[in-house]
Amino acid sequence: MKLQIGSVVRANAGRDKEKFFVVTGCDDGYYLIADGKERKLSHPKRKNPRHISATGSMIDINDITDKKLRMLLRDYGCSE
C-alpha cells in the first residue's frame, strides 16, 4: 500500500483503533499520522503500514491547523 501525504487513513490496531488520521509523512517504512487532538501535526505518531487502511480521501495539509484538522476528520466519524 502506497499512501501520499494528506491521505485519510483509519487505524486497524493499537489503542487508536477505529479512529481516523491523516498521513503527514514517511519515516523508514512507517507512516507518520496525526489527528489534531491526541496526535498534533507537530508531533505525529509513527504507525506500521499494516496497521492502517486507506479511505481513499485526501486532505490538503498545507497551512492547516490542528483545530481545522479535527473538524475535517470529524466528518469521517472521528469522535472527540
Task: Report what the structure shows.
The chain is mainly beta and 80 residues long. The protein has a single domain, classed as SH3 type barrels (Roll), CATH 2.30.30. Helix content is 11%, strand content 35%.
In short:
With 80 residues, this protein is mainly β. The chain is 11% helix and 35% strand.
Task: Describe how the helices and strands are arranged.
Layout: E1 7-11, E2 20-27, E3 30-34, E4 45-47, E5 52-58, H1 66-74
Query: Which CATH architecture?
Result: Roll
General form: globular
Oligomer: single chain
Can you tell me the number of structural domains? 1
Instruction: Report the end-to-end length measured between terminal Cα atoms.
Output: 28 Å
Number of helices: 1
Q: What's the total number of strands?
A: 5
Which strand order does the major sheet show? 4-3-2-1-5
Q: How much helix is in the residues?
A: 10-25%
Largest sheet: 5 strands, antiparallel
What is the CATH topology assignment? SH3 type barrels
Short descriptors:
SH3 type barrels; 1 helix; 80 residues; 5-stranded antiparallel sheet; globular; mainly beta
